[in-house]
Structures are given as structure tokens and as C-alpha cells.
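Whiteboard transcription, Tuesday session. T.W. wrote the C-alpha cells on the left side:
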């Protein structure tokens, strides 16, 4: 699953880690994700049996979906991250101090003994099955840290169907290296999002898993080309500091992605199917210098700006402490993805994507 360099050719992870829940809540979304990636991993405690549909079980049987059973080292490292976060973060994000009446359950097998007292003190109760009943914000914060640990240890990019979780994962992927002022003009680095159109066959909701698997096998090479063009670009753009070179990379990316997407569109049409679009948001760190040139000269990197016909890009938040930046250590196999259906429309040369403001979501998480 790790990125490899075979001569001049790089190959990237073909798998993703689903978070923050165990069960998939939208099977149409799941089928769409399986038409983009080769395998979807999810975090499942050994003692827990997921409530899966027949289609999900069929995908599991042929290896398209695989469970990750947590090791002691997974829990130990997550406990260290949580303890370090809780003890040393300059301030606790406002959302983690929530006192609303809603509850979420956290499976005890997902928690290391060292931080169980912290979560016990934050929980509202422990149910008869041993699940901690916590506010959704605290439960999700722990699950995001756990997902981040699993992702980094196994070099699997993260995937969610929840825009709030995608935005908040920027916080944990950058080790909470933000302050209350998310748009600090003095900073040269930030966490950003690239939003792209993903082409899929229409009628996915009516396809059973056997049909999805058949389609996967038929168009495997196109799917691989699509993923690799995205991951190669994001791997490069995270490290670029020079504006002129950034422009070269974006031009190459637009060309490669356009060719790949047109080939896939034609192949789908030849199957007698119509084409639908999904939105694919990709989170990664960049220099704001690179964002400026990619956003076609926009003076505001926080404005989601069009990059050719390939998609949109914009900053989500700026890094607070440059010395703690993870940008130069970042790998495309650490990417965070949010996939959404039926949110993209194309009209002539116009590219329109409806997305929530990730900056606003992250700001609400930190500052409420």
C-alpha cells in the first residue's frame, strides 16, 4: 500500500480508510467509492460484529472491504496522541467542551487503558454493554485521532462521507497546529482542499454489488489512471514553494486529468450508460505561495478558486507554528478525502461544484 518508486514511475495506495464509523450509512455512496478505489478499510473491534447488508457482505467476501482489527500498538499510539493533545494543546477546541444532550457510543475495545480515565470523566454514562456514552464531539475527536494513527501507521489515505469530519480531520492531520485566528496573514503555510469532479456510471443505486464488481473489473485501468493523476499531483503540490513551477505542475495536472476523465466518460458511454458526477475533495498541506498561483492570481487564498477545468482549490486554515509544520513530511498516502454524490454539474465550459465551506466548519469546531 505504500507509495513506491519503480524507476521514474510512482505507484500510490489503491486503498482508503473509511472513518469515523464502522457501518456504511449510504450504500450508493459506498458503491461509488468502490468504483474509485480498489479496497476500503474500516476500523472494527474484534469483539464487535457490524450490522452489514448482503451487498456489503458480498464486497467483504471478495476482498473489496476489509476490517482492520486494532493492535495494542494502534491503541498505545492513539492514547499517546490523545494524552499529548489533551495535556499540551494551547486551548481545547470549543466543540470538545460541548454540553448538549445528544450522545454517541464509543466501543471500549477502541480505547487504551491509559486514557480510559480521561474518557470516563468526560462520559455521561457507561451502558450495560460497556460502551462509553459521550458527547458526539468528544467521541468523534477520539475516533479522528484513532483514524489518523491507523492511516499514518499503514500509509492508507482517509475517506469519509461526512463533510464535517473531513473539515475537522484537517485539524488532527496537522497535529492541531492552528490558533483561533485561522486566517493568519503572517503564515506562509496552510492546509488546503482541492475539489475535483469524479465521473461515475448512472444508476449506481440500482446496481447490486455483483454489477458494481463487474464494472470495477472492466474499468480497472481507467480507475487507476484517475487516482494516480490526482495523487501524483497532490504529492508534488504539497512540496512546491516556487510559483513558476507550481504553474507548470497545475498545467500538466489539468491536461492529464482531462485526458483520463474523457477516456473514462467515453468508456462508460460505450456501455450504454449515462454519466453522473461525484465531488471529490482532497485535503493536503501547501504553501500559500503555491495556492496564490493556482488560484489564478487571487489575492485571497481562502476563496475557493477554479483551476482550469480540473476543479477548485482553496485554503482552509493557516499553520500556527511553522516549526511544527508537517508539510515537508507529508505523503499523498496520508491524504484525506471526502466524496459526495450528485453535487457536481457541468454546463459547457463552466465547472460548478456545490461544497460547504470547510473553513467555516473548522472555525466552528475550534471557536464555536
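and on the right, the sequence the group agreed on:
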Amino acid at each position: 500500500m505504500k507509495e513506491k518508486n519503480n524507476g521514474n514511475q510512482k505507484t500510490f495506495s489503491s486503498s482508503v480508510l473509511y472513518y469515523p464509523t464502522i457501518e456504511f450509512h449510504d450504500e450508493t455512496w459506498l458503491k461509488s467509492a468502490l468504483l474509485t478505489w480498489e479496497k476500503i478499510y474500516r476500523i472494527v473491534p474484534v469483539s464487535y460484529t457490524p450490522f452489514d447488508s448482503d451487498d456489503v457482505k458480498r464486497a467483504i467476501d471478495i476482498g473489496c472491504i476489509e476490517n482492520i482489527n486494532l493492535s495494542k500498538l494502534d491503541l498505545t499510539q492513539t492514547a499517546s496522541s490523545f494524552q499529548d493533545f489533551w495535556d499540551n494543546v494551547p486551548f481545547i477546541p470549543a466543540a470538545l467542551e460541548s454540553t448538549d444532550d445528544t450522545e454517541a457510543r464509543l466501543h471500549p475495545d477502541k480505547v487504551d487503558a491509559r486514557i480510559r480515565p480521561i474518557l470516563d470523566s468526560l462520559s455521561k454514562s457507561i451502558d450495560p454493554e460497556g460502551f462509553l456514552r459521550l458527547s458526539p464531539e468528544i467521541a468523534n475527536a477520539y475516533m479522528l485521532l484513532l483514524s489518523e494513527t491507523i492511516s499514518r501507521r499503514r500509509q492508507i489515505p482517509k475517506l469519509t462521507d461526512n463533510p464535517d469530519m473531513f473539515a475537522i480531520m484537517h485539524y488532527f492531520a496537522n497535529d492541531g497546529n492552528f490558533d483561533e485566528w485561522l486566517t493568519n496573514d503572517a503564515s506562509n503555510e496552510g492546509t488546503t482542499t482541492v475539489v475535483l469532479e469524479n465521473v461515475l456510471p448512472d444508476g449506481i443505486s440500482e446496481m447490486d454489488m455483483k454489477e458494481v464488481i463487474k464494472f470495477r473489473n472492466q474499468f480497472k485501468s481507467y480507475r487507476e489512471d484517475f487516482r494516480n493523476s490526482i495523487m501524483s499531483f497532490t504529492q508534488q503540490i504539497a512540496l512546491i514553494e516556487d510559483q513558476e513551477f507550481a504553474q507548470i505542475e497545475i498545467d500538466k495536472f489539468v491536461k492529464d486529468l482531462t485526458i483520463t476523465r474523457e477516456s473514462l466518460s467515453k468508456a462508460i458511454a460505450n456501455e450504454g450508460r449515462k454519466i453522473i458526477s461525484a465531488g471529490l475533495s482532497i485535503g493536503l498541506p501547501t504553501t500559500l505561495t503555491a495556492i496564490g498561483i493556482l488560484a489564478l492570481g487571487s489575492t485571497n487564498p481562502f476563496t475557493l478558486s477554479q483551476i482550469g477545468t480540473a476543479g477548485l482549490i482553496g485554503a482552509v486554515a493557516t499553520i500556527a507554528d511553522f516549526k511544527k509544520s508537517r508539510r515537508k513530511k507529508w505523503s499523498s498516502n496520508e491524504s484525506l478525502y471526502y466524496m459526495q454524490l450528485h453535487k457536481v454539474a457541468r454546463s459547457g465550459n463552466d465547472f460548478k461544484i456545490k461544497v460547504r465551506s470547510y473553513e467555516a466548519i473548522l472555525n466552528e469546531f475550534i471557536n464555536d
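Someone added at the bottom: The two ends are 38 Å apart (CA to CA).
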